[in-house]
# Entry
Amino acid sequence: MLIEIDFNSDEAIYVQLQHQIIMGIATEVLHEGDTLPSVRQLADTVGINMHTVNKAYSILKQQGFIQLDRRKGAVIAIDINKIHAHEELKRELRIALAKGCCKNISREEVHELVDELFDEYTFG
Amino acid sequence: MLIEIDFNSDEAIYVQLQHQIIMGIATEVLHEGDTLPSVRQLADTVGINMHTVNKAYSILKQQGFIQLDRRKGAVIAIDINKIHAHEELKRELRIALAKGCCKNISREEVHELVDELFDEYTFG
DNA sequence: TCTTTTGTTATATATAGGTTAGCACACATA
DNA sequence: TATGTGTGCTAACCTATATATAACAAAAGA
# Structure
């Protein structure tokens, strides 16, 4: 899987890594059991420090998207804690939708947007 | 409008201020034309520095939620740039929904969540 | 066995962001 | 005139981010 970092972005590098890997899983470019490059390999190919990759991997592990194995490296392994995920999504949506609501974005427009985004993901 | 800051939160104080004011507008606690406390007043009542409040106000002004007037203070004045707001919402939703999608949260569940959140806002 | 690679941990350094403080200015209001 | 306003500036402090370098134990392969 191709990973690209925008060094001019205001998003931290380790956050960009997280997002791209999560998008890879959602769009089924990455499947359960697939392996990601080792922290050193990915750091080399992308041109960043090992610890930055390690930080991204550690958070993805803690969030239940991958498992880290000294033998196999980083393996996609989704641990589904639906209650927690639902609460987190609600928390993230609350302020985003409020902002849109202030800007006169209607409930229907948001529903269309959700459908449009879900169509980007191959499962769901 | 009552503003409360969680000093133990990992969210920056000026971000908490932004969010609470935006939520105030969305829930119609704050209306167009209402005035917010001056940077010094709000800083005093909340117990934070003037510049922290000023940073929150400046960003809210730049995002088109308030206008700053030396005479009247900070006034709720929503500048609706719907195209920009739509793009921003889409950008914010993309990663949040992808994360939920990986956790087996269905399209229907997201629609329900959107309705649930929109019901919190009195207009929309 | 020996070597290499793995994730992990530790320390040090440099840069950027967040928060506070104090000061100053131009303007508005009373 | 006196006070409060937004705004700008500098300085200090702490944390977060990213880098560099080094070392470790566990596992893999030769």
Summary: Chain A touches chain B through 46 residues (CB under 8 Å). The two ends of chain A are 21 Å apart (CA to CA).
